């Protein structure tokens, strides 16, 4: 053997052409159908909210890294993805200054305080949503569709006044709700693209949504076996959360088995919050945030066998 063919180097030895920027670009492309649906159903102001969230997220990352004299990483597009997801998780009527604060909170407090990309403990966009919801609950629960105030389908299921939209309107997104969560059709198109590009695997979305289907069918809002699981999975932020936020590389388990455990936990918590909580109709955001905190524990106990190891 030619010794010049041997190279001594430290791990990792498996190389990939994938880059953070390339992955984030694919995520942005996958989010475009939901963004277009949000603009179609909620009009021009939805685009204004998205632009505000993105600009604030990118500027916050640049400013923090500039002030702390760290490497400027805004070109990796991760801040853009965070900005889009924050815009997707707020109502179209929210004041723009609140959106800007939410993006700054996500980038600086949730992401940069912990060391930047790959170091955050919880999903930045969901943490920003929780922060905005606790700080300005009225602004975060003011839903409109076609210019008129309308309760979300989940709120109506909880007892709020209003008529439940048809399953067709629920699927295409012609309902009240956050900008990016209403159109299950658009989100599923994005999901198909991410699977095609192998940016994510099916494990978390399928087991998360599947758990909600099983539990909402068995438990039901009016007793055993009274649930309408199809309606439940298309309503609220389940599709958005399961496809785009529970699958975040940094805040989900590394192994397939761990991802399944994580997804089932998210589905369990989502179903319990939706059915049994007093007034809060949605459970996706808090379920994912809670399970994010269990990821180190899951990774610790769900470890693949080392290559060459024997008992």
Query: How is the biggest beta sheet arranged?
Result: 2 strands, antiparallel
Spatial separation of the terminal alpha carbons:
34 Å
CATH class: Mainly Alpha
CATH architecture: Orthogonal Bundle
Strands ordered across the widest β-sheet: 1-2
Beta-strand percentage range? under 5%
> What's the number of domains?
1
Structural category: mainly alpha
Mean pLDDT: 90
CA-based shape: globular
Q: Helix count, per DSSP?
A: 14
Q: CATH topology, which one?
A: Ammonium transporter fold
Q: Give the SSE order as H and E letters.
A: HHHHHHEEHHHHHHHH
Question: Rounded to an integer, what's the Rg over CA atoms?
Answer: 20 Å
Q: If you had to describe this structure to a student in words, what would you say it looks like?
A:
The chain has 311 residues and is an all-alpha fold. The protein has a single domain, classed as Ammonium transporter fold (Orthogonal Bundle), CATH 1.10.3430. The protein contains 14 helices and two strands; from the N terminus they run ααααααββαααααααα. Helix 10 runs antiparallel to helix 12 and helix 10 (203-218) runs parallel beside helix 13. It is globular and about 70 Å long. The mean pLDDT is 90.
């Amino acid at each position: 053997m030619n010794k010049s063919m041997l190279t001594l180097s430290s791990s990792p030895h498996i190389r990939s052409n994938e880059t953070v920027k390339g992955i984030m670009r694919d995520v942005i492309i996958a989010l475009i159908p939901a963004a277009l649906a949000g603009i179609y159903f909620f009009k021009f102001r939805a685009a204004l909210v998205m632009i505000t969230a993105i600009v604030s997220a990118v500027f916050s990352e640049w400013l923090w890294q500039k002030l702390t004299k760290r490497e400027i990483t805004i070109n990796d597009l991760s801040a853009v993805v965070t900005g889009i997801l924050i815009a997707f998780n707020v109502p179209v009527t929210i004041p723009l200054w609140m959106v800007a604060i939410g993006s700054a909170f996500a980038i600086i407090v949730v992401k940069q305080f912990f060391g930047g990309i790959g170091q955050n403990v919880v999903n930045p966009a969901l943490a920003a949503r929780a922060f905005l919801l606790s700080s300005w609950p009225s602004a975060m629960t003011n839903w409109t569709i076609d210019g008129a105030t309308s309760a979300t389908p989940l709120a109506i299921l909880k007892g709020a006044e209003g008529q439940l939209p048809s399953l067709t309107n629920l699927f295409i997104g012609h309902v009240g709700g956050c900008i990016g969560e209403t159109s299950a059709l658009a989100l599923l198109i994005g999901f198909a693209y991410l699977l095609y590009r192998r940016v994510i695997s099916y494990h978390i979305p399928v087991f998360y949504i599947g758990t909600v289907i099983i539990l909402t069918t068995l438990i039901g809002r009016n007793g055993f076996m009274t649930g309408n699981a199809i309606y439940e999975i298309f309503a609220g932020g389940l599709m958005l959360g399961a496809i785009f936020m529970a699958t975040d590389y940094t805040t989900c388990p590394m192994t397939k088995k761990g991802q399944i455990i994580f997804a089932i936990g998210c589905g369990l918590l989502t179903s319990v919050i939706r059915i049994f909580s007093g007034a809060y109709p949605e459970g996706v955001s808090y379920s994912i945030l809670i399970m994010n905190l269990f990821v180190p524990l899951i990774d610790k106990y769900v470890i693949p066998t080392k290559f060459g190891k024997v008992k």
